[in-house]
């Protein structure tokens, strides 16, 4: 019995062991079987998740584009999510390729079970990744407010430094310096140069008086409160939401109070403007806010309760003579003084009149000057209300000197509001539609002709440079005189743009051109009588409906603009406009475009940014179309085949961000338009297009590629509106490339590669040259380096290089084969390196040949293997570097290698520096940011800091090992620190747990420009390198109160003085 028991026990033990072994063996087998069983369901699931991710990415990209259009800065977390999404999409694409190969053999006995099991497992794993990734893409906000433009860069080509005007600017400066003066009035007659003077004031004020913000806004004769508020808000970097007047004013006021000192210039006031209603805080509300107003009338300044008024006096005789000679193109000599004095005497003392008469008489014989003026005076006298007689005379004389085409363009520019910048594109369309150039029927030829006309108008000084590049405007007085002349001479022009009067009450039977832009038009008459009307501008109005019969009695209409209105439907009477040449419906709520059909004479059709799902029926019959724009139509479902190819006269085609499913190869059952249709447009000179099918890059298409002057080609990549007029954005690029792609690459200025695989470096592309390239962006590409020796000489025009999330990249510039200096990167201004975990060095090769003398901005982030950025040789070449940011580089020990032979862990050619006693590095650096570089113990050595005469902002954040900001090799003397960092304005030290001192020793730095000191979470920093008189302009000290109270001070006076500036606030 004992033996049985023993055997039973052994048997039971053996059974349990066997069961245990079998169980352990079965678990992994079971998993593998489950992978096979669930193969189809796993693939179905990952495809569903991939579609969800694609939809979410599309929504995020749309929000990013909207933010980008507003000039807002996209948040880093959004950009990172987008890049991670691209990586996931790459993995899913790779998986699909493997699945397709595995499914090649369909007989069950020939299936590759091992591959299926592996792919099923990968699909399940990737599904989990997507499930974790999707929630992170639901952002509360995706961007920071737009960084406002610096008004100090405003162009002032019209400004001439005359003594009279310089005296006015000096007077304004003196008044601004007095703390008691909060509102300053500047008044002078129309045309005396107030606007030009204010632009110059903006550029000069910062040289003598510091303001945190300087704003300039034109008010005009018909002030629009909402526009004024929006312009101020835009200049300070945000948007005012809502329509409630007081709420908008309160929002603006609250925002302006964030800055201690603000200068607001309100130009061209005609009546009192309630600053509180606008939302401008002043007086006790905001003691640091000062307002300068300009007006023609001193009474307006008084009504604004100005503390001091400054009159712009009439120009002195010497100034008038000097101004006339400059504008008339006369040499700086006394040869023409007598004739010039006579002209100036006859034309008064206003700068605007002198400028125009100078332009009118430019390049004309002197003996004709007085005859021209006398002839104009003897002709029928023109009187324009509110405009001085001499201005009317000079504008009329200048206008009469113009050719008829130039007169028409000047009249056209008067159809827009006074503050509007008329673009060259608008002038070109006007030239085409109104047949300004007989015999010229192509947009390209009109553009060339219009360039000459604009040059003539600018030379006459009747057309002025606008506030934006490529845009133009007219002076208010000039505008009024031109409108009056045009109406008097039978042109019947009615331009009420910006007057906010709604539809005019006057009879319009003889009116030929009617502009009601920004005119508060909320309703339209049922059937207005306008038989001679050829141009109608109704854009930028809160208009929702157009009466059905509205267009019935304006059948002569050729130019119609309904952009930026809220209309969703077009009236039936639109079909009456058989002579229509240009129809613009940009950014409307239009859903149905079916009524836009059979306009045989239509040459320009713009439907950009509408909500249409289908293109107009009969579009293929509009064979005179030269410009077609239906970009940014996100709801467009498709383009019918064989439509685009019938528009054989098309010169400009804009279809970006609307439709991307172009067929690459024609088929009998073709559902959508083919790319070959676009290629068939022989006259095409402008093409903005998005193609989803990557195979287009390797498919040959004969087409108008050599003729393209502007293009934006996006292939399988997200569509971006880039400022550059010659750009390509290519995803999944591989060799070989089609010839049409190579041809455009050689002309491209802005180039983006995304997820390009198996490309060792860019030089391996079979392209003859990329000499035109100015901006190059690489995202998630598999490559070892960006530029090799062969490509380096061919990128001499490159200004901007971004390399992001290229995980295998080891070097940026690999130039070991070049031994002597050659042209390359001489124009590089911006270098961004992000997410490069294997990057070992920026520059591999001979550093002495590097040509980075124009680099201004550099950012390095998430480059975990970099030990330092520059060798001493390289650092000495960065004369123009202004902004440097180094973020999350975990291995970085120093910015400039202490050993010239060691850069980023790679050995480079050494150089004898013994003949350079004090090398200068980064002489023009203005902003330095270091964050999360956890191997750095010190930011910069004293020898480098001593050359930082332009540095304005120094920020060090979350560097765990940093013990001091500036390191000196020995004792530091007062003399060495006397002129160190003379322009430093902001010093921010956050989350530096080991920081003990700013610099070795107990020297007090003299920082005459320092205004703000931020210290947060630096518990071991017990002493600041400051004395009572070393920081005379200090305004803010921010940090933790407990830290501030424990500080050790050199003297009690310094503590008391800085305590009054201290606030416990973390920003």
From TrEMBL:
Domain AAA+ ATPase, chain residue ranges per copy? 180-317
**Which protein, by its recorded name, is this?**
AAA+ ATPase domain-containing protein
| ATP-binding keyword on record | yes
Q: Which SUPFAM superfamilies match?
A: L domain-like, P-loop containing nucleoside triphosphate hydrolases
Q: Which family is this protein grouped under? A: Belongs to the disease resistance NB-LRR family.
Q: Which CDD domains match?
A: Ras_like_GTPase
Pfam families the record matches? LRR_8, LRR_RPS2, NB-ARC
Q: Which domain of life is it from?
A: Eukaryota
In terms of PANTHER family, this protein maps to: AAA+ ATPASE DOMAIN-CONTAINING PROTEIN, NB-ARC DOMAIN-CONTAINING PROTEIN-RELATED
Instruction: Say if the entry is tagged with keyword ATP-binding.
Output: yes
Q: What are the protein's UniProt keywords?
A: ATP-binding, Nucleotide-binding, Plant defense
InterPro entries, per database record: AAA+_ATPase (IPR003593), Apaf_helical (IPR042197), At4g27190-like_LRR (IPR057135), Leu-rich_rpt (IPR001611), LRR_dom_sf (IPR032675), NB-ARC (IPR002182), P-loop_NTPase (IPR027417), Plant_NBS-LRR (IPR050905)
């Amino acid at each position: 019995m004992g033996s049985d028991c023993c055997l039973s026990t052994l048997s039971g033990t053996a059974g349990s062991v066997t069961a245990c072994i079998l169980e352990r063996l079965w678990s992994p087998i079971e998993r593998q079987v489950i992978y096979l069983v669930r193969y189809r369901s796993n693939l179905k699931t990952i495809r569903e998740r991939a579609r969800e991710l694609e939809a979410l990415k599309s929504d995020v990209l749309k929000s990013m584009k909207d933010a980008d259009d507003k000039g807002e800065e996209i948040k880093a977390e959004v950009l990172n999510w987008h890049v991670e999404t691209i990586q996931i999409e790459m993995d899913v694409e790779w998986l699909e390729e493997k699945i397709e190969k595995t499914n090649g053999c369909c007989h069950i006995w020939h299936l590759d079970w091992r591959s299926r099991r592996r792919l099923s497992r990968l699909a399940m794993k990737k599904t989990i990744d997507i499930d974790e990734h999707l929630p992170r893409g639901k952002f509360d906000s995706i961007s920071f407010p737009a960084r406002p433009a610096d008004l100090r860069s405003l162009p002032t080509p019209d400004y001439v430094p005359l003594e009279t005007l310089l005296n006015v600017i000096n007077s304004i400066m003196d008044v601004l310096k007095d703390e008691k003066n909060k509102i300053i009035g500047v008044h002078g007659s129309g045309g005396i140069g107030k606007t030009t003077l204010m632009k110059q004031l903006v550029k000069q004020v910062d040289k003598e008086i510091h303001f945190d913000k300087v704003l300039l806004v034109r008010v005009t004769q018909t002030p629009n409160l909402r526009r004024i508020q929006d312009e101020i808000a835009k200049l300070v970097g945000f948007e005012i939401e809502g329509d409630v007047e007081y709420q908008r004013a309160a929002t603006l006021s609250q925002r302006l109070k964030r800055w201690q000192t603000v200068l607001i210039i309100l130009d061209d006031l005609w009546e009192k403007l309630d600053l509180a209603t606008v939302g401008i805080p002043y007086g006790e509300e905001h003691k640091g806010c000062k307002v300068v107003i300009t007006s023609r009338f001193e009474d307006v300044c008084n009504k604004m309760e100005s503390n001091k008024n400054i009159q712009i006096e009439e120009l002195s005789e010497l100034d008038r003579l000097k101004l006339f000679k400059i504008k008339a193109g006369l040499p700086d000599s006394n040869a023409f003084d007598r004739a010039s004095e006579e002209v100036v005497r006859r034309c008064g003392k206003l700068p605007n009149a002198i400028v125009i008469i100078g332009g009118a008489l430019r390049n004309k014989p002197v003996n004709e000057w007085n005859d021209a003026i006398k002839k104009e005076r003897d002709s029928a006298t023109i009187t324009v209300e509110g405009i001085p007689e001499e201005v009317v005379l000079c504008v009329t004389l200048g206008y009469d000197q113009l050719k008829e085409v130039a007169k028409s363009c000047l009249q056209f520019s008067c159809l827009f509001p006074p503050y509007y910048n008329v673009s060259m594109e608008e002038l070109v369309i006007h030239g085409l539609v109104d047949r300004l150039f007989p015999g010229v029927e192509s947009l390209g030829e009109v553009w060339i002709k219009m360039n000459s006309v604009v040059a003539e108008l600018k030379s006459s000084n009747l057309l002025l440079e606008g506030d934006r590049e490529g845009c133009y405007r007219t002076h208010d007085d000039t505008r009024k005189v031109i409108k009056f002349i045009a109406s008097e001479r039978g042109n019947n022009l009615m331009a009420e743009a910006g007057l906010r009067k709604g539809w005019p009450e006057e009879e319009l039977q003889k009116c030929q051109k009617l502009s009601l832009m920004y005119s508060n038009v909320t309703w339209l008459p049922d059937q207005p009588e306008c038989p001679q009307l050829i141009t109608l501008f109704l854009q930028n109005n809160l208009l929702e409906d157009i009466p059905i019969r509205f267009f019935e009695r304006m059948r002569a209409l050729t130019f119609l603009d309904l952009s930026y209105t809220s209309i969703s439907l077009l009236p039936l009477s639109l079909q009456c406009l058989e002579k229509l040449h240009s129809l613009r419906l940009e950014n409307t709520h239009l859903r149905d475009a079916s009524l836009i059909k059979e306009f045989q004479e239509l040459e320009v059709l713009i439907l950009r940014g509408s909500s249409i799902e289908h293109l107009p029926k009969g579009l293929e019959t509009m064979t005179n179309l030269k410009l077609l724009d239906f970009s940014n139509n996100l709801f467009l479902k498709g383009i019918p085949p064989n439509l685009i190819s019938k528009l054989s006269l098309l010169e400009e085609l804009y279809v970006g961000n609307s439709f991307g499913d172009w067929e690459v190869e024609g088929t009998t059952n073709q559902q959508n338009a083919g790319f070959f249709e676009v290629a068939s447009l022989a006259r095409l000179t402008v093409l903005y297009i998005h193609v989803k099918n990557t195979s287009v890059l390797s498919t040959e298409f004969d087409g108008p590629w050599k003729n393209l002057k502007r293009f934006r080609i996006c292939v399988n990549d997200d569509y971006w509106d880039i400022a550059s007029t010659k750009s390509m954005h290519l995803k999944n690029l591989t060799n070989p490339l089609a010839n049409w792609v190579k041809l455009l690459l050689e002309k491209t200025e802005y180039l983006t590669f995304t997820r390009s695989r198996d490309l060792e470096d860019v030089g391996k592309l079979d392209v003859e040259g990329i000499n035109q390239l100015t901006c190059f962006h690489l995202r998630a590409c598999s490559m070892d380096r960006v530029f090799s020796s062969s490509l380096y000489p061919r990128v001499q025009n490159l200004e901007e290089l971004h390399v992001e999330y290229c995980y295998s990249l080891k070097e940026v510039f690999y130039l070991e084969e070049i031994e002597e200096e050659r042209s390359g990167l001489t124009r590089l201004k911006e270098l961004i390196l992000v997410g490069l975990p294997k990057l070992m060095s920026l520059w591999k090769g001979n550093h002495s040949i590097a040509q980075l003398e124009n680099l201004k901005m550099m950012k390095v982030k998430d480059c975990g293997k970099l030990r330092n950025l520059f060798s001493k040789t390289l650092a000495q070449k960065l004369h123009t570097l202004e902004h440097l940011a180094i973020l999350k580089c975990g291995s970085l020990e120093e910015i400039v290698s202490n050993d010239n032979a060691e850069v980023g862990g790679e050995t480079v050619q050494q150089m004898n520096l013994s003949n350079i006693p004090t090398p200068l590095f980064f002489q023009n650096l203005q902003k330095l940011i270091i964050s999360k570089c956890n191997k750095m113990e010190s930011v910069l050595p004293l020898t480098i800091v001593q050359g930082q005469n332009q540095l304005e902002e120094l920020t060090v954040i979350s560097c765990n090992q940093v013990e001091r900001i500036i390191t000196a090799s020995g004792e530091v003397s007062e003399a060495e620190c006397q002129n160190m960092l003379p322009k430093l304005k902001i010093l921010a030290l956050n989350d530096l747990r080991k920081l003990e001192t700013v610099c070795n020793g107990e020297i007090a730095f003299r920082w005459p420009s320092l205004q703000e000191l931020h210290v947060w979470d630096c518990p071991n920093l017990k002493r600041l390198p400051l004395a009572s008189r070393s920081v005379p302009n200090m305004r803010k000290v921010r940090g933790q109160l407990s830290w501030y109270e424990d500080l050790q001070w050199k003297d009690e006076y310094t503590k008391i003085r800085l305590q009054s500036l201290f606030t416990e606030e973390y920003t």
